[in-house]
Amino acid sequence: MTCKGICIRHKAQKPVGSGRYALGQRRCQICEIFLNWVGLWCPCCGYRLRTKPRNLKYKDKLRAKKKREEADMLIQQQSAPQIQKPDKSIMHESVDS
């Protein structure tokens, strides 16, 4: 499998302030390019795309960012007001009268 040049259309720009994998970019080892692509396979050469970093330092950064995001979501869910549903038995009594 070789690069056919199709991947150039999906080339991802380098992000400022965060990692590529954290933003959902994927890397093709054959084409040697980061892509903005949803699938698991390269649209150009058909090779499987990498979705996680190989370097331990960057793996730790990605894990820490995911933990922070999960904690923030949990805090938001807990702080959101709970909406109570109306009691249906009360509604039926007023209809019978």
Description:
The chain is mainly alpha-helical. The chain has a domain at about 1-55. It contains two helices and two strands, in the order E-E-H-H. Strands 1-2 form a two-stranded antiparallel ribbon. About 10% of the residues are buried.
Describe the secondary-structure layout.
Blueprint: E1 26-28, E2 33-35, H1 56-79, H2 88-96
Shape, principal axes of CA atoms: elongated
Biggest pleated sheet: 2 strands, antiparallel
Measured between the Cα atoms of the first and last residue, the distance is 77 Å
Biggest sheet strand order reads 1-2
Instruction: Please state the average pLDDT score.
Output: 83
Could you estimate the helical fraction of the residues in percent? 25-40%
Regions with little confidence, pLDDT below 50 for 5+ residues: none
Count all strands and give the number: 2
Give me the oligomer status: single chain
Q: Could you tell me the strand content as a percent range?
A: 5-15%
Number of helices: 2
Radius of gyration: 24 Å
What is the SS-derived class? mainly alpha
Run of helices and strands: EEHH
Highlighted features:
single chain, 34% helix, two-stranded antiparallel sheet, 2 strands, 2 helices, 6% strand, 97 residues, mainly alpha
